[in-house]
Amino acid sequence: MGRHIAFFNIPAIGHVYPTLAVVEELTRRGHRVTYATTGARAATVRAAGAAVREYRSLRPADTDPDLRAPSRDGYISQTLLSFLEEAEAAFTQLADDYHDDRPDLVVFDRMAFAGRVLAARLDLPTVQLWPMLVSNEHWNMGQALNAFDLGDPVLHTYLAKLEAFLSTHCPALPPDRFLTPTPEAHLAFYPRAFQYAGELFGPEYRFVGPCLRRTRPQWHPPGDRDVVLVTLGTIYNARPDFYRYCAEAFAGGDWHVVLTVGRRIDLDALGRLPANVEVHRFVPQLDVLAHAAAMVCHAGMGGIMEAMTFGVPVLAAPQTLEQEANALRVEQLGLGARLPADLADPAGLRSAIELMVKDPAIADGVGRLRDAVADAGGARRAADVIEQCLR
């Protein structure tokens, strides 16, 4: 008999999309899945088979042109505060619904703090999701990249708000243990081989790899040119200068360039594009990667794992601390290269791509991680783990 499994997530596409194939698999097995998300993501979540529990978000809309990444030094503190405020809004709107319709298990994204608090308040088993690198006593991003300032006033604001939030809604949950829960399992959407110090993480960490939804192809390559996909994801993508730079780098050459630019910029800001460059707000990324020889991206975890699924090397252009950690791992494992921050020389971008796709060491690295992705188990293994955690 099916059980009620409640998913809590933040509205970022890079966090929602990895869960959709898991939701589909769980509902296929007869479970009832409810999913706390925003109106902007509701249709996508419903299409995966979940019943949506909608809340009004405090996060900027996908079309907000002014959204910029926090500074490197303040990234962790700003992120924690932002998603704590999001959690307060979500919890206030959703808690009564889940009290009246008690789940059997709560599955919550690392940054979806409302799910963490609701589960503790109702004494429910949990699974924590990691669409980003796992942090624990063996490795954490702030220490590894020397980017965590204990004196940051934003961090002190976060700690004060956290204490007030927990004292109001879940006094039994100590603030000093809030970021180190002990769920029944942790699910990471990438293979263990990609995790820093991955061999030190115990069996409670299940590295299931990317959980992708395959659909009928909607994009096909024009002609027989090598394809390069260029994307900065869906959040910090208001960079018409970067897209123009990439278009200029490949203008008139042998490559076919697919630019996906999101909804934060005016397409007219890109100017006249070369004939071998096509531009989209969004593109079925898996379809493009199935034909691509290279990918230029912001080093988001989802994009890297999709590229590895198809054996495509990555030229990383990180914009946040989290993406910087991913980009360093790409370099360490020989999965691609990193684009220098200085965008002064478009010819240098084209040269970097051409060197990368011809490098036998990178081909070997990509091949090894592609095998690791194939062996990780994906959505079926993720659903198996979630079922095992039901009491």
Describe what this molecule looks like in 3D.
The chain has helices at residues 13-28, 39-47, 75-100, 113-122, 141-144, 153-169, 240-250, 285-289, 301-309, 321-332, 346-358, 360-376, 378-388, and strands at 4-8, 32-37, 51-54, 105-109, 126-130, 185-188, 205-207, 226-231, 255-260, 277-280, 292-297, 314-316, 336-338. The radius of gyration is 21 Å and the shape is globular. Helix 1 (13-28) packs across helix 13 (378-388) and helix 3 packs across helix 4 (113-122). The protein is built from 13 helices and 13 strands. With 391 residues, it is an alpha/beta fold.
Question: TL;DR of this structure?
Answer:
By secondary structure, this protein is α/β, with parallel strands linked by helices. 41% of the residues lie in helices and 15% in strands.
Q: Give the topology string: H per helix, E per strand.
A: EHEHEHEHEHHEEEHEEHEHEHEHHH
Query: Strand fraction band?
Result: 15-25%
The largest sheet is: 7 strands, parallel
Rg from Cα: 21 Å
Fill in the CATH topology of the largest domain: Rossmann fold
The CATH homologous superfamily of the largest domain is called Glycogen Phosphorylase B
- Termini gap: 13 Å
- Which regions have little confidence, pLDDT < 50, spanning 5+ residues? none
Number of strands: 13
Q: What value does the average pLDDT take? A: 95
Question: What's the overall geometry?
Answer: globular
Structure classification: alpha/beta
CATH class of the largest domain: Alpha Beta
Q: How many helix segments?
A: 13
CATH-defined architecture of the largest domain:
3-Layer(aba) Sandwich
Q: Enumerate the strands of the largest sheet in spatial order, edge to edge or round the barrel.
A: 3-2-1-4-5-6-7
